[in-house]
Amino acid sequence: MITDNQVRKLMKFLEQGKTLEQSSAKCGMDVKSARKYRDLDKLPSELQAAGIRNWRTRSDPFIEEWPVVTGFLEINPGLEAKTLFEHLQRQYPSRFSDGQLRTLQRKIKGWRATE
């Protein structure tokens, strides 16, 4: 990962008349990365802030069953997400794929943090 200090050094070397190849080598970055930051004239921290999104890209697959899950968690807060996921898979066959376990784990972690 390229740091702000590397880009600052790169700009300093470029201002001194060094070539892009020389400057990028002295800063410890690839020429392609150096060209990117030279052309953008922005620091990496400025670019990252613009690229953060705060919306969902997919609909929540557990939205309909969430009251059932929270009911189980209120009765027994020590239940693991995997146990609840297996219960949901038995209750609703072919509705939840194995790859959705991590989604449920994140959702339960958030619920436990707020409740």
Structural description of this entry:
With 115 residues, the chain is mostly helical. The mean pLDDT is 92. Helix 1 runs antiparallel to helix 2 and helix 2 crosses helix 3. The protein has seven helices and no strands. The two termini are 36 Å apart.
Give structural attributes.
single chain; 115 residues; mainly alpha; 7 helices; 63% helix
What can be said about this structure in brief?
This protein has 115 residues and is mainly alpha-helical.
Average pLDDT score: 92
What is the string of SSEs from the N terminus onward?
HHHHHHH
Strand segment count: 0
Determine Rg (CA atoms, Å). 24 Å
The dominant shape is rod-shaped
User: Fraction of residues in helices?
Assistant: 55-70%
Largest sheet report: none
**Distance between the first and last residues' Cα:** 36 Å
Fold topology:
Blueprint: H1 4-15, H2 20-27, H3 31-40, H4 44-51, H5 66-75, H6 81-91, H7 101-114
